[in-house]
Structure formats: C-alpha cells, structure tokens
Amino acid sequence: FNHKLQRTEKMKIISDLAASVAHEVRNPLQVTRGFLQLLGERTDEQHQRYLHMAVDELDRAAGIITDFLTFAKPELDEMRLLSLAEEMKQIEGMLAPLATMEGGALNINVPEHLSFYGNATKFKQALINMIKNSIEAFRTDGVIDIWAYEDQGKVTIHIRDNGEGMTEEQLARLGEPYFSTKTKGTGLGLMVTFRIIELMQGIIEVHSRKGEGTEMIVRFPVAREEAKDLPDRVRA
Ligand code: ADP
Ligand code: MG
User: Fold this and answer.
1) Phi, psi of 148 (to 5 degrees)
2) Could you give the CA distance from residue 37 to residue 54 in angstroms, rounded to a whole number?
3) For ligand 1, which residues put their CB under 6 angstroms from it?
4) Three-state secondary structure readout of 111-165
5) Residue 130: what are its φ and ψ, rounded to 5°?
C-alpha cells in the first residue's frame, strides 16, 4: 500500500510539472502568433503566404499542447450547466471556416433547449477533436452532419461524416495513446476526447466503415434544474 502511495505522489509531481510546462509554453506561442499577424498586415502576398503557414503551424502546436495538458491533468475544474446549442454555436464559429477551406461543409442542427452538466472548455475541446478528425478524413465533397435530441434521459449528439472511414483494426485502436494514421498526427486527440466524455459522465459509441464514413454518438445525462440532486463534485 505504502509503495503504491509513493508512486501516486510521484505521478502527481510529474503531471503537475508537465501541466505547468505546457501552460508556460502556450503564452510565448500566443505572443509570436500576434506578431506574425501584425507582420502579415504590412507585407506582400508571397510573404503573407509564408506567414499564414507559420500561424497555422503555431495553432497546431497550441492544439497539441492543449491535448497534452488535458492528458497530464484531466480533472474538470469547473462544472456547470451547459447549453448544447450555445456551445455548438461557438464550435461552429471556429470550425465551419476550416471545413469550407477544405472543400466541405459543416451542418449543425441542434435544438435550443438541451442542457447537461460539464466543463465548457473541455466539452468544446472534445468535440473539436472529433470534428477536426472528420475534416481531416474528407474526400471530395466532405459533409459533416451534427444533430442532437433527448432520448431516455440522455442528451444524444450525433457527429457523422462521409469521409474515408476506418477499418475494423483502426476502429479497435481508437483512443489508444499515439495511435495515428496521419503523417502529422499525434494520436492524442481521441484519447483526450474519450477521457473528457467519461469525466462528464458521458458515453461514446463509434461506427465506421472504410470508404464510407464515420459516425460518433455521444450521450450525456440530461440536466434538470434541481442541482441539489447532483453529487457534490458536479455541483457548479
Ligand atoms: P490524430 O488525429 O492525431 O491522428 P486522433 O486520436 O484524433 O489522432 O485519431 C486517431 C486516428 O483515428 C486517426 O489517425 C484516424 O486514423 C482515425 N480517425 C479518427 N476519427 C476519424 C474519422 N472521423 N474518420 C476516419 N478516421 C478517423
Ligand atoms: Mg485528431
């Protein structure tokens, strides 16, 4: 027992350290991004293209750090009542332009009234990881459909793409750390996504067929107004 306890303490030190390094690295990335954008406003088209690529790569680095940070410190610090429609609006604002740029479309159709308990930032991170995978799986005329409804006390969210899909072997390895079929992949995205969903008492189901597309279904317990019925750690 003692030995185990020591190990846990060591793990905590390592994960705190990893989290603070990741956190500190994000700031200079953000500052660099700002200066590059300033430069972009006063230079010719050719150089603008380079600056654009530099900003994209910085964003990629920031995304990897965000996933890594969640991996190192997966606790959800602030849980509150989330409106699915509101969160999806923000996600749409961030990812619809990317889908368009990749020659596809992102169709989001969720009703106004669905809510559940969770951490807003982490929830968006989980969905962004999934939707980005769908965009990265685009063939020609990529379409991502997202819709939601209440079913048996669960807020049920579907994310479906018509992209390249997965083989059964790939499907079985989904969420395994470092499993990636991409040259620039990290294989951290879905592992983090699955962890976040689990921490928010959610469950996820994945269907995929090679050459046809992928559908992920996420379910969270519906939140009713009476917060008093909730266990302590999910109270806002
Ligand atoms: P990464 O995106 O860095 O490769 P992820 O954990 O996000 O890591 O995904 C792991 C792997 O799962 C991907 O490399 C890809 O092979 C597969 N995958 C995930 N989502 C999809 C999808 N919507 N369509 C096809 N393949 C997918
Ligand atoms: Mg990914």
Assistant:
1) -150, 155
2) 10
3) 129, 133-134, 137, 161, 163-166, 170, 174, 179-182, 185-187, 189-191, 214
4) CCCCEEEECHHHHHHHHHHHHHHHHHCCCCCCEEEEEEEEECCEEEEEEEECCCC
5) -70, -45
Residues 142/162, Cβ–Cβ less than 8 Å: yes
Paired tokens of 194: 């699955």
Confidence (pTM): 0.82
Rounded distance between C-alpha atoms, residue 66 and residue 180, angstroms: 17
Cβ atoms of residues 78 and 234 within 8 Å: no
- Specify the amino acid at residue 23: H
What value of ipTM does the predicted structure carry?
0.99
Q: 């939140």: which residue's tokens?
A: 223
Which is it for strands 143-151 and 154-161: parallel, antiparallel or unpaired? Answer: antiparallel
The residue whose C-alpha atom lies closest to atom 20 belonging to ligand 1 is 133
Handedness of CA 93, 124, 118, 112 (dihedral sign): positive
Model confidence pLDDT, tens digit, residues 163-190: 999 999 999 999 998 899 999 898 999 9
| pLDDT tens readout for residues 21-37 | 888 888 899 999 999 99
Name the residue among 83, 29, 209, 197 with its Cα closest to residue 129. Answer: 197
Name the token pair of 212.
């046809």
